[in-house]
Amino acid sequence: MSRTQVILHVDMDAFYASVEMARRPELRDVPMYVGGAERGVVLSANYPARAYGIEGGMPATRARRLCPQAVAVPPDYDTYTDVSAGVIQLLRSFTNKVEVASIDEAFCDITGAICRLGEPRTIGELLRARVADEQRIPCSVGIGPSKFIAKLASKQAKPDGLVEVPSDRITAFLHPLPVEAIWGVGPATASRLHKLGLTSIDDVAHTPKPTLQRAFGAGQGALLHDLAWGRDNRSIQATEPEHSIGAQTTFGRDTDDPRAVHGELLRMAARASSRMREAGMCGRAVSISVRFSDFTTITRTAQLPSPTDVTDEVYAQALRLYEGLHLQRARIRRVGVRIEKLVPAAEAYQQPTLDAPERGMREVELAADALIRRFGPNAVGRATLAGST
Length: 389
Known about the structure:
It is a single chain. By secondary structure, the protein is of the alpha+beta class. The protein folds into 3 domains: about 5-15 and about 80-170, Reverse transcriptase/Diguanylate cyclase domain (Alpha-Beta Plaits), CATH 3.30.70; about 175-230, DNA polymerase, domain 1 (Orthogonal Bundle); about 245-385, DNA polymerase, Y-family, little finger domain (Dna Ligase, domain 1). It is built from 15 helices and 12 strands. It has helices at about 15-25, 45-50, 60-65, 75-95, 115, 120-135, 145-155, 170-175, 185-195, 200-205, 210-215, 220-230, 260-280, 310-325, 360-375, and strands spanning about 5-10, 30-35, 40-45, 70-75, 100, 105-110, 140-145, 160-165, 245-255, 280-290, 295-310, 330-345. Helix 11 packs across helix 12 (about 220-230). The chain is globular and about 70 Å long. It starts with 6 loop residues before the first strand and ends in a 14-residue tail after the last helix.
């Protein structure tokens, strides 16, 4: 018996503002927004600022009038792109069916991951914990049998929550909502629905389809009726299939300390390797990327002796690549580690050495992965990274 598809929608709450608060924790409890202080528009506002009525798309002059003490932070699009890419890489370690909707939201088909990672809610909570741990930002997750329901659920989950809508609860969840919640219903369509006396999704659902088609046309009328009953057959349109798995981090401040760089290379190697094991893959090559304070970026790649998903082996190669750059106290903004030329772990041949123990670091890391899935991302970690950020 085939299982109903399970779609997960991830929405990174107040994304630009959340990234800035991760870099500057002192902004968490004060009204702040990303955008110009006196000109331009508000791109994103934190929840203390929203309490004053400040919201995205609002002119900065109006935001200043609503809350004169609000802190305006200039946007840093490079960092936002980096964080978004990191979240998408994480999603692709759960499933290869990921559709990127925008810089701060994505859909995932996790139907095939359930046998491997647990029930949908378990997967959603693990994903939220991993995003918080790795990128230090919150996200809301909606889970449902379709993209439409999953997206509505994530909106209900805000801020920083999770809502799951199983197939047998669709109408109970959907019908009390206003017509404006229907995907594609903007102010003009909502006004026309209101003129017909239809204010809730329940009203639309119980209006005969021919009536809706006469009012809105054959296609739109049928779509409104189907969505009102939760019928949405659109599948995930996977974007940019992943042929590699990696992780990257931007330093809070540019650094020329080799120890700090080495530590982050190890952390990124551990994240990338963990994602490899979650995806059931091994890699034949390792690459690093280094971005300097002037935003120039260089990459280096090297083959591995045999396919691997073991952190120590990935880190050793990443460190060799970094040391091979022979940098002389260059100030570094970001580092990343990527594992390439992927093969299924079940098909990866690894040449054992005569003195290799029967069980090694891979078994240790698999055990650690199991603990993390059960107790969260901070359940176990490397002592060398303890206390570092």
